[in-house]
Specification:
182 residues; mainly alpha; 70% helix
């Protein structure tokens, strides 16, 4: 056959195909035994599973790291606020409390705000901040302790005892509270 002559039509049913490329992509697969094909397919499945497990593990590790870094950042921010309060920068401390998402509108933020008011000599205002936080967020051990402490400093022993008793009850409800043998 010369280049100018037409090629005969391709007959799909015949065993000879004139226009087929010399190396078909599936020739390697056709030449393999069933056992070899199953092993190859199994290895492929295992590789996909391991890859997806690795991706899942990476995502979980990243989430955990971000959460830990966020907690460290909140702790550092809380420490910064405490340092500002100790240095007398009450406006800066209050501004930081109000602008930090993990601290504002929480009991921890209320305790820090109450510390500012106490340092400024406004113990009634500090108690109001703490009791408002109790109504909004519920009472926790730290909040009960701070309210009891403020009432005690103001000389209101009855209210102080009430909050110290609440603190004791909350402490005893904790799962890590040591239980005495009977």
């Amino acid at each position: 056959m010369t280049n100018n002559e037409e090629k005969p039509p391709v007959d799909i049913n015949s065993t000879i195909v004139y226009n087929a490329p010399k190396t078909s992509k599936l020739i390697f697969w056709r030449g393999w035994s069933k056992r070899r094909q199953i092993i190859f397919f199994g290895i492929l499945v295992v590789a996909v599973i391991l890859l997806s497990a690795g991706v899942t593990a990476t995502i979980n590790y990243t989430r955990k790291t971000v959460k830990e870094n966020n907690n460290k950042t909140l702790q550092q921010t809380s420490d910064d606020i405490t340092n500002k309060i100790q240095k007398g920068d009450y406006a800066g401390a209050q501004k930081e409390i109000n602008s930090t998402n993990g601290i504002k509108n929480t009991n921890e933020g209320a305790i820090l705000s109450a510390a500012i008011k106490t340092k400024q000599g406004d113990q009634q205002g500090a108690i109001k901040v703490l009791t408002d936080a109790e109504k909004t967020n519920g009472l926790d051990i730290s909040l009960a302790d701070q309210i009891g402490l403020l009432y005690e400093q103001m000389g209101n022993k009855t209210e102080a005892i009430i909050y110290y008793q609440k603190e004791l009850q909350l402490t005893q409800q904790r799962p890590d509270y040591p239980v005495k043998a009977a």
